[in-house]
Design goal:
Length: 102
Amino acid sequence: MSYYRYHVFFCTNQRSDGRECCQDCNAQAMRDYAKAQCKALGLNGPRKVRINSAGCLDRCSEGPVMVIYPEGTWYSYVDHEDIDEILDKHLQQGEIVKRLQI
């Protein structure tokens, strides 16, 4: 068994050349929100969920983006409500949130 049930990576990359990037869409703040919500819900820790920042995941044109392993499910999100839905549906209930999947 993996150390974490789910490992979530938020692209928080800031490109210096002016191209689109996830950080232009508040990616770090959204990652911080997700991490705080996981902790508040008791989802964080070994055998549970780990929220991490990632460098460029090379899908910025679809961003902001995050990917959840072990499935390799990619999501885009806009606001806290989207993050809450991913936490509830995917990380708690094991269901893919089709409307946010990329």
